[in-house]
Amino acid sequence: FAAQLQSRPEFFEAFADVVVVYEGETALEGILDARAAGEDLSEIPNLLYLDSGRVKATVTHVENVGLLPTPDFEGLPLSSYLTPVPVLPILTGKGCYFNRCKFCDIPYINHVSRKAYRIRPVEKIAEDVRTLSAWFDARHFVITDEALSPRLLMSLSDALRPESGSFNFTGYARLEDGFNEEACRKVAAMGMRKLFFGLESASQTTVDHMSKGINIAAVPRILRDCRAAALDFHIFSIVGFPEETEEVARQTFNFFMDNAEVIGSAGSSFDIHPFGLELRTPYFEEREAVGAVVPIAALERDFVIGLRPEEWRNVRGISPDRVAHLIDEDFLPALRRRYRDYHARRSPLFPSTEEYSVLYGEHYAGRAFPYRTSVPLEETARFSFHWNKSWPLFRTEAGDYRAVATNFEIPIDSRLFELITIPHERTWGECLTIDAGVRSPDVLRSVLDFLIEIGLIFVMLADEAPTAEVFYQPNITRNLGAAQ
Question: What's the number of CA atoms in the CB half-sphere (13 Å) around residue 229?
């Protein structure tokens, strides 16, 4: 937005003294030094600021990532974040080593550099990790690069070999053949807990259309090698690319259905999102050629980054309304049934976000994740229900109960109360005995799965439950009027 900001002096009058554009390390340090010394800003690179009523732009500077110091988080309230221990970001390079995907705006973000990808020496990356660990007692790191190559990760694993097992990482990567069994095991040995992969589409035609540069046929093998190395993964996917038909989009859905055995572990995850047209991408530049019609009004707002699905027309592909229907009404309900053990809820029990993935990945390394997102189907499985202590429970005058959330109530009859509030190990047959004469087996299963989905109760397999786990039973308030 540098060009737009240069024509908006009123922005600086109202909102900011200075805006740093492009890369900020040298610029931020220069601003602090200039303010402390009472000097002007004209010699500091990558700045926009107001000077005599006009927006002034200083010279553009591209950082040498090999010369940047280890980031210093001193003074930040690291203990106030909602994690039990610090999880710190680190950077190995800027830009993307592939840099050709037509839907992605990373090439534009990095366009001020002559090099599409600038990498920090591996020895310095390893030293960053050691230094941050010493300064902040940190053992968990999110590598914030756009994409980490197998070669880089293997080199970093070698550099950190003396501390093998001391650190934990997550990061983003491409589904490349280089992630073979040897590479996955080596990367996992470094402490990589989860890799975030961009599949985008399971159609080779579509990934070729977007110049993604991956071989769809190799993807299941890559995922199996990750799984064999105890390396979790997340898979990003998208529906509604320019010129993508519904028939082609269903190949992505079918991929997840067909590969549930390898994808459906507790720590691995996936998502399907509608395509959004980013303005600083090859797809936008080629919009007429690929049948993407963009109304002029959608581009007239200030500081537009991208267009939502409803803001442009895919004249040779799936409409936004149809994309939304496919994802919400067709694909996701079927996938929740297919992935019922760990992924039947909208919000996973084993978090898929980077910071929490690395924490959970270490905590459950080498042991089972005991929680499930639906009632087990196996007749012989023993499991127990556990109440979510954040839900208040009220008893009615009739002797039944109501669980109360912010904007709705869940009625709970006495049989269901006995079943879900006393954490005894049971089989499915024993559950049916308790509920006998009240609900059919299918209805009871649906009710329990719904209560699990909304987070009212948790279900845990008896064989995998840790002996030290703390379970909660509800505190019952007898005055229902307090909840109304």
Answer: 26
Q: Quick one: residue 154, left, alpha or beta (phi over 0 = left, psi -120 to 50 = alpha)?
A: alpha
**Assigned token pair, 29:** 């340090």
Strand 476-477 and strand 457-461: pairing?
A: unpaired
SS3 string, 67-100, reads HCCCCCCCCCCHHHCCCCCCEEEECCEEECCCCC
Span 255-280, pLDDT tens digits: 999 999 999 999 999 999 999 999 99
pLDDT tens across 464-477, in order? Answer: 766 544 455 666 66
Amino acid (one-letter) located at 151: R
Pairing of strands 93-95, 232-239: unpaired
Residue 398: pLDDT band with limits 50, 70, 90: confident
Domains in the chain, CATH or no CATH each: 2-57 (no CATH), 82-363 (3.80.30.20), 371-483 (3.90.930)
* Closest to 450 measured CA to CA, from 477, 420, 470, 472: 420
Inter-residue contact 105 to 280 (CB < 8 Å): yes
Determine the pLDDT at residue 481.
Answer: 46
| Confidence (pTM) | 0.92
Asked if residues 117 and 97 have their Cβ atoms less than 8 Å apart, the reply is yes
The answer to whether residue 303 scores a pLDDT higher than 80 is: yes
Given a contact cutoff of 8 angstroms between Cβ atoms, the answer to whether 98 and 44 are in contact is: no
Q: What strand order describes the sheet that includes 54-57? A: 18-20, 47-51, 54-57
- How many CB atoms sit inside 10 A of residue 276's CB? 17
